[in-house]
Amino acid sequence: LITMNTALRAEGVVALARDSHLTGLRSWSLEGGSIGAEGAAAIAASPVLRNLRVLSVRNTDIDATGVAAIARSSQLPALRTVVLGEHAATTAGPDAVAELARRCEVITDR
User: Fold this and answer.
1) Cβ–Cβ under 8 Å, residues 46 and 17
2) 3-12, 27-36, 44-53, range with the lowest pLDDT
3) Which residue in 13, 71, 78, 85 is a FRET match for 45, CA 20 to 30 A apart?
């Protein structure tokens, strides 16, 4: 699913994370959206996204809280790669990025 540069906000991510039509989703690019910690928490808590393997949040406003929620999620067992991009990685901070990297591959553009 590509929702790049669509001005998607946290409310939209919350709604999509609950949409049972996305149960088979394996890759989601949220690049350029404004998802924040609320949107990241919705992704992390979503049983609908249990098959998600790749998540791209490059050029979003995801922060340390959001990255940590994804890193700690038990609802995303298939997650293998998260694309943070340099901005998101900087905003999230090294501790949150390191925690996520223990779980899956993290791409930061650095």
Assistant:
1) yes
2) 3-12
3) 85
- Phi, then psi, of 2 in degrees rounded to 5: -115, 115
Cα(75)–Cα(83) distance, rounded to whole angstroms?
18
In terms of C-beta density within 10 A (0-12 exposed, 13-18 middle, 19 or more buried), how is residue 58 classed? buried
* Phi, psi of 23, deg, nearest 5: -55, -35
- The DSSP 8-state label assigned to residue 90 in this structure reads H
Kindly list the distances between the CA atom of residue 15 and the CA atoms of 19, 92, 105, in Å, as whole numbers in the listed order: 6, 24, 26
Band (pLDDT 50/70/90 cuts) for residue 9 is confident
pTM for this model (two decimals): 0.88
Residue with tokens 């609908």: 48
CB-based contacts of 9: which residues, under 8 Å, 6+ apart? 33, 34, 35, 36, 39
| Adjacent-strand bridge partners of 59 | none
